[in-house]
Amino acid sequence: MKFRKRISGARVPGDSITGPVSVVRRLDTPGTARTRKSGSYDAMGNRLLKVAVVVLCTVNALMWEYYTESRMMAILWAAVAVGFIVWIIDDTRR
């Protein structure tokens, strides 16, 4: 399925609408996105940001467990940290 967006002010061949007409432009689909090199600064910055999120989520989980003794919130933050770890591993495999 191709995603299309209508932009007002331009003509589409075969468009018979009177008044303002629109042009159809194809949006990028998930399979056509460009991938960056794994050695670029942007990719390294994204990876460091994800690692920082993992560290902060882990600290947050430990604080919830230690100070409030709320195991449910500690498990929630630990799950977020594990989710980011899985995302980092999946990202490095690509």
Relevant terms:
94 residues, elongated, two-stranded antiparallel ribbon, 2 domains, 54% helix
The overall pLDDT, averaged over residues, is: 75
Summarize the biggest pleated sheet. Answer: 2 strands, antiparallel
Strand order of the largest sheet: 1-2
Radius of gyration: 23 Å
Oligomer: single chain
Helix content: 40-55%
Shape: elongated
Task: Please mark out the parts with pLDDT under 50 across 5 or more consecutive residues, or reply none.
Answer: 21-25
Helix and strand content put the structural class at: mainly alpha
Number of helices: 2
Report how far the terminal alpha carbons are from each other: 24 Å
Order of helices and strands: EEHH
Q: What fraction of the residues are assigned to beta strands by DSSP?
A: 5-15%
Tell me how many strands there are: 2
Whole-number count of domains: 2
How would you portray this structure in words?
The protein has 94 residues and is mainly α. It folds into two domains: 1-28, no CATH class; 41-93. Helices cover 54% and strands 11% of the residues. The chain contains two helices and two strands. The protein has a two-stranded antiparallel sheet. Helix 1 (41-68) packs antiparallel against helix 2. Residues 21-25 have low confidence and may be disordered.
Concise synopsis of the structure shown:
The protein has 94 residues and is mostly helical. It is 54% helix and 11% strand.
Strand and helix map with partners:
Blueprint: E1 4-8, E2 22-26, H1 41-68, H2 71-93
Antiparallel strand pairs: 1-2
Helix pairs in contact: 1-2
